[in-house]
Amino acid sequence: MAGARLRLSERSSGALRQTRSDQEGAYEISGTPRGSYLIEAEAADEALLVSQPVEIEGDIELDLQLALSGPKADVLVTASSTPLSVHEIAKAVDVVDSEQIALRDEFALSEALRSVPGLRVRQLRGPGGQTTIQTRGLRTQDTAVLIDGLRFRDAAATQGDASGVLSDMNLIDADRVEVLRGSGSSLYGSHAMGGVVNIRSSEGGGKTHGDIRAEGGGLGMLRGVARVGGGLADDRFVYSGGFSHLNVTQGLRNGSPHRDTGGQAFARYRFTPKVAVTGRVWGADVFTNTNESPAFPAAVLANFPVSGPVRAIPVANSQLKLYETGRSYQVGDATFMPDAIDPDSRRVSSFVAAAVALEQQLSPNGSYRLAYQLVDTNRSFQDGPAGPGDFEPHFSNDSRFDGRIHLFQARTNQQLGQYNLVTVGYELEREEFENLQLETDPAASSSRIGIQQSSHALFAQDQIRLLDGRFQVALSGRAQRFDLSDPVFQGADTPYKGSQAVSPPSSYTGDVSTAYFFRGSETKLRAHLGNSYRAPSSYERFGGSFYLGSASYYGDPRLAPERSISVDGGVDQWLARGKARLSGTLYYTALQETILYDFANFPVATDPYGRFGGYRNGGGGIARGVEVSGQLSPVSGTSVQASYTYTNSDSRTPTIGTDFFTMLGVSTHMFNLTATQWIAKRFNVTFDLFAVSDYSFSPYGANGRRMIFAGPAKADIVLRYDLPVSDSHTVEIYGKVENFFNNVYYENGFQSPGAWAIGGMRFRF
Q: Burial level of 730, CB count in 10 A (0-12/13-18/19+)?
């Protein structure tokens, strides 16, 4: 088959070589050292796929026969940090590849992940709005984000995770996103308590190829993307990269403009077939108008029932506009005022994640890798007195959160005998946090906090393959030590002056997973058990806020890490010669110790820092449930995937009042459906549905009452037509309707757009 994509992954190092078949269906991958590999070939527009192990001892010829396949990828790395076929993986892992993202016409990382079982994606207001990703009913900070296997997070985020930049992360030149559900700290460190999202860069290679995209439509949205990739000198040098500019000139209710300009690139140079250096960079510069939080004027509170939960009913948009302009308004039977437009409130942010790595295959059975990564994040929240809220500053203010993380990783993979692949590694991470609070009030003073922390980690893994690869066992562990420097304070008085930094205790995590594949029935049984942790962030230790010239501090330098243990087990069943795959997983996670943001039960009398509320260690909670998913390609050109997730997530302490323990913001039921149909080779239609059940939440200002918000349901439809210009040039014309059924919903009280449409063209070469 012409144009099929082939990927050759070396088992011990993960080194990737790729190419495409020519018009005759022939392919060549040259300069490949001896060793064990996994080869994968796919023709995405035909739903065809094949993969198999291969031993290379010299020049070989290997014919591959593509077959209809429900799953869209057969070789993944995130489960073990080395390549494994889907029949070998002992953990719950799903993948969203670049072709699926293109068919759904998604550009934001968060939107691309909506189809993954067990993931609850929440975006407030629309493009550029605050974004969170929750895994299996846990919190946002319990999901770690990686870029090409290296930890990516914002040192200045409230919980030190990636949530501060999720809304800025548009997929410009990513090859795929792999999602591991379950504990991952033994391999990937802090924050991997509920799962791991690993964004893998496109690596280029082959003839020069790329695309240029232009689209626009509703919300005043305009987006342009240009990408190019290829290889030189028989792919000794491969490259891929792109630039993107998104400009939402109006946004929801003509009051949420958003701009995001970014770039993403990757390059590799092979000095010899066994020695290579790689580099990649991803960054963005972002501007977003931010709104007020939902409000609860007296007229709205008067509609609350005397007791029991409160059904969340929004004030009509016509009355919301009157509220924003200071005029009289009617609330009717509404129980909350949605987020109002604030004309002088904005978020200005940027991030850069750059890495360089040296890789060498020492022998057919061993390799090592040295990698350095820099993550630099900057966020500025600016506000003035012009908004309609009750807490508008008298003068313009600026809250800046800057973070920088240096990460060095050294690791080696060694095949020991026939059955064991052993990984040993070391990580040195140094992070810097700076928080600067400024006001234009001449009588006010500024406030600055600077903090530095280092950590050292040793990790190891043993992957055991028995019974001709049918039985897999993986054992891994990590030990990490922290060293916190004394913070630096300037400006406003702080209760922490004179306090010595207290380094968190060392962390020890372990993980075991196992799988057995019955080849006759094509059934795989798997189980996974592990413990995880999250180190307290700099903000949780020393953070605070600055308002009207007065500072309030919430941090506790004595905080201990959060800890959890999780277990899951499941079955994967392939049917009809791989045309369909059904999966089911039971999971249970116990948060043994957490960090609470507490004002209701805070020990004011005994707090050494004189706080009236803030961060403290406390009891955890449990989340358990089931994930069921299916992928089906019954005939060429048809692809369907669906999933259902049930989650029961409870806290060990009340979340509202004295007798309500359910985790806030967590829906019990979640359903996803994505279906693509190719028609007459050049035309395809994709339908994408995401729906969750109602959930409980208690916004600030609701007098501590439990409110029931309707779960969002959103369906998108994309139509795409390919117009060939030549053998290697194609013009793609497409249109998309977001929220096709015009279901207006309110995430935590923030309104989301109804139906809106875009159209565009993409020139592929």
A: middle
Last residue of a domain, one of 335, 366, 398: 335
pTM of the model: 0.93
The count of other CB atoms within 10 Å of the CB of residue 440 is: 12
What is the arithmetic mean of pLDDT over 552-577? 94
- Dihedral sign (CA 201, 207, 208, 209): negative
Per-residue tokens: 394: 């008298």
Q: What local confidence, expressed as pLDDT, does residue 63 receive?
A: 73
Residues 343-400 have pLDDT tens digits of: 999 999 999 999 999 999 999 899 999 999 999 999 999 999 998 988 888 888 899 9
Is 66's pLDDT higher than 80? no
DSSP 145-196: EEETTEEE--TTSTTSSSTTTGGG-B-SSEEEEEEEES--HHHH-TTTTSEE
Counted domains in the chain: 2
CATH value at residue 227 = 2.40.170.20
CB atoms near residue 151 (< 10 Å): 22
Quote the domain boundaries for residue 110: 5-294+338-764
Give me the percent of the chain exceeding a pLDDT of 70.
Answer: 97
- Asked if residue 139 has pLDDT above 80, the reply is yes
Residue 213 structure tokens = 């995209």
Q: Are 398 and 426 in contact (CB under 8 A)?
A: no
**299 and 264 housed in the same domain:** no
Closest CA to 349 of 124, 128, 112, 121: 128
d(CA 273, CA 235) in angstroms, rounded, equals 11
Q: How many CA atoms lie within 13 A of 681 on its CB side?
A: 2
Check pLDDT > 80 for residue 153. yes
pLDDT of 24 reads 73
Domain stop point among 280, 307, 335: 335
Q: In this structure, how many other beta carbons lie within 10 angstroms of the beta carbon of residue 677?
A: 14
Same domain, 517 and 616: yes
Q: Determine the Cα–Cα distance for residues 197 and 184; give it in Å rounded to an integer.
A: 10
Residues 476 and 533 in one domain: yes
Among residues 118, 134, 100, which one has the least CA distance to residue 747? 134
Same domain, yes or no: 159 and 307: no
Whether residue 70 has pLDDT greater than 60: no
In angstroms, the Cα distances linking 327 to 32, 58, 291, 302, 751 are 73, 80, 19, 20, 21
Based on the fold, state whether residues 571 and 548 are members of the same structural domain.
yes
Q: Rounded to whole angstroms, how far apart are CA atoms 298 and 597?
A: 27
Q: pLDDT, tens digit, for every residue of 83-119?
A: 999 999 999 999 999 999 999 999 999 999 999 999 9
Sequence-ordered alpha helix ranges (H) in 255-348: 298-301, 317-324
Residue 418: is it exposed, middle or buried by C-beta count within 10 angstroms (0-12/13-18/19+)?
exposed
Residues 582 and 617 placed together within one structural domain of the fold: yes
Show Cβ contacts of residue 322 under 8 Å, excluding neighbours closer than 6 positions: 328, 329
The structure tokens 């699926």 sit at 100
H or E element in which residue 11 lies: none
Residue 439, pLDDT score: 80
Q: Which helix (H) or strand (E) holds 75?
A: strand 75-76
Distance CA 349, CA 705 (A): 34
Q: Same domain for 163 and 309?
A: no
Same domain, 213 and 322: no
Phi, psi of 699 (to 5 degrees): -65, 160
The C-alpha angle with vertex 590 and arms to 584 and 592, in degrees rounded to 5, equals 165
Higher pLDDT residue, 61 or 375? 375
pLDDT at position 443: 66
Cβ–Cβ under 8 Å, residues 15 and 9: yes
Contacts of 80 (CB under 8 A, 6+ apart): 89, 187, 461, 463, 474
| 15 has pLDDT over 90 | no
